[in-house]
Amino acid sequence: METTNIKAYGNQSAEAPLKNLNIDRRKPTPHDVEIEILFCGVCHSDLHTARSEWGPTIYPCVPGHEIVGKVKSVGTHVSKFKVGDTVGIGCIVDSCRECQYCKDDLEQYCEPGMTGTYNSPDKNLPGNPTFGGYSERIVVDENYVLRIPDNMDLASAAPLLCAGITTYSPLHHWQVGPGKKVGIVGIGGLGHMGIKIAKAMGAHVVAFTTSESKFAEAKRLGADEVVLSKDEEQMAAYRGKLHFILDAVSAQHDVNAYLALLRVDGSLALVGAPEHPLPISAFSVIVGRKSFAGSAIGGIKETQEMLDFCAEHNLAADIEMIDIQSINEAYERLLKGDVKYRFVIDMKSLKSN
Fold this sequence. Notes:
By secondary structure, the chain is α/β, with parallel strands linked by helices.
């Protein structure tokens, strides 16, 4: 298959910092869309994958799955997009398309396994990994490309391709809306979008944080109430009160304390990814017929639905723009939670390398 050599930013080992790389992209085949990348969000997954913490990572590694750009060229059979369109790429660039989940628009649960935007075996270039959005361009089958609504700010739309869909999908699946009291645990890259989306869906939103300094911020984001999770008295006041909880915490924490806040038949869905298992007491779920669940991103159809929902309700991520040359520093700040609430790379900075 014909390829083009382009600029990118990535690393060659778990210990190595990210730096300039040159990578090969396939030239567009009949159903491909070639996208010039304008902005790319920085996700915790990028950091964990680059450092092989969710390993084993395939090196060289070029992270990035919150991609917004312009269509540069299209294959001869492409019907959904044209040159100049504003588009996005999330976490999925291919799947088997034949299993029951792919047929049900749940490509994220593809039985043989979806093809991730980076660090997956590249079906089109055997022996190579897929490379993500820390690069000049990307080539993706049109069926895995998303349309960015016209009224969206492109930089703050980028994190919606992961943080937005990761929170929208469980809120949608568990039918959050008017009359529902919903808890959002953790006010970070995921949690801040969870608050915004749950509020836009019409729910009464209760935000939980370990820091009193985040109370005003949570209210600004749309929370109706804010609870200091370290305060047993404040937590006790919500016992048995919540219909649904979205848990966006990736650090170790006591899930049982939150399960206690659910009503009968309530559900807690985990979207954070703690490094170690979280102990669950049997009685935390038996008493009250409660569910402890998880959720992974969303399929292509639901991701488009999320983008359209966010455009309709004027929702976007709160971002801090950086140049690609600052990515290693950004990773260190990400580990400390020192960002409100998502780094986004202005990819024109790559051209200056």
